[in-house]
Amino acid sequence: MNVSAGPTQKMNLFQSVTSALDNTLAGDPTAVIFGEDVAFGGVFRCTVGLRDKYGEFSCVLSIVVPRGPVQAKGLLLSCIADQNPCIFFEPKILYRAAVEQVPTEAYQIPLSQAEVLQEGSDLTLVAWGTQVHVLKEVAAMAQEKLGVSCELIDLRTILPWDTETVCKSVVKTGRLLISHEAPVTGGFAAEISSTVQEECFLNLEAPISRVCGYDTPFPHIFEPFYIPDKWKCFEAVKRMINY
Question: Which residue numbers delimit the Transketolase C-terminal domain (predicted)?
């Protein structure tokens, strides 16, 4: 197209950017704008008026953390096929440590659908990524040393997360332990705890336990002390059972 053809309007550079975004949103229903303060016009006002013109709808953001190779491939393909943006976390420690027989053909694992890896009746264990393997050991220790039957759930998608599966399990067991590597303050375990407290309060036999990372920076050499290992989680299990 000849840029001199058709109607014109005097614009500075940021106004021309706004015009380009406007044209895109008008002509492509799948187009999305995201960035710092874009809903309020952006830092440099390049998106002024676009929210009012095209609506306040914001897409669903999915956050996925696989526990192993089979899950990683299926979940990643689901993220790629999903029309909404997805954040796919890759547990670095599992890059070469986790080895499974993975189908070479394409397959998908549903997003926002937790998986019950082990059924139990006394306590619900919830984790994602690397911590699933830690809690699997904890479940075996609890059965062997305490005679406690643990239900183990891999959340897989932490946003939007499968509230139904977790709450159904807690109603059955009456106890919930959540473990993740991130710091306890502001960690996603707090969101799960809050929801379960609201939905299953009368079914709880003990306070919900969060076994997570510490609220402090740490050097690499101290990583073994920072990570919530099976012993920290097992101690939490004992406290909950004896509550």
Answer: 113-231
